[in-house]
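Shift notes (night). Ran Cupin superfamily protein while the centrifuge was going.
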Amino acid sequence: MTMTYVDPPGGHGRPAVPLSAAEALTRCVSVEPAKFAADHWGRSPLLSRAAELPNPHGFTDLLSPADADELLSRRGLRTPFLRVAKDGQLVPAARYTGGGGAGAEIGDQVLDEKVLALYDDGATLVLQGLHRTWPALVDFTRDLGAALAQPLQVNAYLTPAGSQGFATHYDTHDVFVLQVDGRKHWRIHPPVLVDPLERQPWGGRADEVAATADGRPALDVVLEPGDALYLPRGWLHSAQAQESSSLHLTVGIRALTRYAVVEELLGLAAEDARLRAGLPFGLDLADPDAIEPELTETVEALRDWLLRADPAAVAARLRARVWPAARPAPIRPLAQAEALTRLAPDSRVAVRAGLRWQLTPTGDGTVVLRLFDRTLTLPGTCEAALRALLAGEVTRVGDLPGLDDDADRLTLTRRLLKEAVLVPA
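Came back to this:
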């Protein structure tokens, strides 16, 4: 897949939505993306039946029951890539992990025979972090993340017939539920707390959750293979497998909130001397009357500082917070090293799919290329070639613009291959 990029004024390169990303979203929702964004995103659930989705084989291409068995038995899985739940409680990892035998004595490896015993006894198996461990989901998650412009995570839930892994609860992130195999009965209730933050989990409102769960659900449905369900954060839900075992994928959407902007603003507010000032000597912190004038002064100082807040500084902090949460496409280290040894003017390269970048001239004869995990400083003469490479199309090294000869083009390309900015095409 070739990822296309846009490079708006200021050099802030971000992945555009390629065809594969748009297709990833349409696999999950039965309405047009614009309608989904306007009517459901962050607002209300959306049930999409298999017949309404363009998935002739459902979601088995992403992870089938046989794939799950392979992960549990042949991949040397370790915690926390597996959780086990029974009767609404997590099973201690020691009950299903241990050493892997000669040469693999690490004590937290998943033991298939212990997993079998727990599953046979009605426990739900939760395969976690599949966006990092299972190839089909690595690619799907990257594409869907590009369509939503949000970092994602993927878990799989394997539930025996008639069992329920977790009691009614809410998540602090939006989710897509993709039913892969079997049937599962879902009961959905409105939030007890609208748009909860990660620091506001459902356990702190367990009584409210239980009382609401006793009422009439807003949605009471059985998901069949190939069905999809979108739930905004905060919506209460519980799910029970029916007459046979069930496998579904949960795609968690770690969306940023305005509160995250507030947190970054407060981090920057430490630059203001008035806000760094100490409280008066001997102030009784338990006395509201004594605190009131200090609170007034602090609010005024904060307001004055906020009016001078630099959007570029806030954006830089948000970039450092968000970009590392969504890794670009995997690279093949051995193939990458081989490409370096064979690099020639006729070699063709492409930018690493899903890579977030920001290219900024410094004014001192260099350009700065910011990536999700590091910053590269390069000669300003490389800017035109960098923009050509980062545009997302496959490029012949010898055709790079702005450089005097092939030696310079090879030097730049070699550096970017070593830094995993480019990949051989």
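Confidence is low (pLDDT under 50) at residues 1-11. The chain has three domains: 21-253, 258-322, 333-424.
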